[in-house]
Design a protein that fits this description.
1 helix; 8-stranded antiparallel sheet; globular; two-stranded antiparallel sheet; single chain; Phage_T4_Gp19; mainly beta
């Protein structure tokens, strides 16, 4: 059994792509879902059959303070989004790692064949003193989950 102090916290994570680490304040959209199709059976009016079809995922949404020009991630976004499909999109595997208090990986998500689909900058307002945030959305084919064996028996 794992002590409650051993549970990983959601603010200690790293993200990398193409071997480059990138710091973010927030990552969201880590989900997958199995779609269903409802089938009505002739002569049976009490229920519908609910059959599984395909799985789908949300876009991975990354938020961070705007990084000065020259960021490999921003260059990759610009190359994919600005080229209008005149050049082939270069998908990358993106790896997100959740760390424990000692900096050891507890859970790792690998987003396969990811590519940017949206780049946005927070509103600029001269009446507020907020940090300017850039948001990057990545579409991906699927993601894999791997974890530290210490946490494998948590829910069994």
């Amino acid at each position: 059994m794992v002590d409650s102090t051993d549970y990983p916290v959601s603010f200690y994570f790293t993200l990398s792509f193409s071997g480059v680490d990138a710091a973010f304040k927030e990552v969201s959209g880590i989900s997958k879902e199995l779609s269903i199709e409802e089938i009505v059976c002739g002569g049976e009016n009490r229920f519908k059959y609910r059959l599984p079809t395909v799985s789908n995922s949300q876009n991975l949404v990354l938020k961070r303070a705007i990084v000065p020009a020259g960021s490999q991630l921003v260059n990759w976004c610009a190359n994919c989004i600005d080229q209008g499909l005149s050049n082939a999109i270069q998908p990358q595997n993106v790896i997100l790692r959740l760390l424990n208090a000692s900096g050891i990986v507890c859970v790792q998500w690998t987003f396969n064949n990811a590519y940017p689909v949206k780049y946005a900058v927070s509103d600029l307002n001269s009446q507020e003193s907020n940090i300017a945030i850039e948001t990057i959305e990545l579409a991906y084919t699927y993601f894999d989950i791997s974890s530290d064996t210490k946490f494998d028996n948590l829910f069994t």
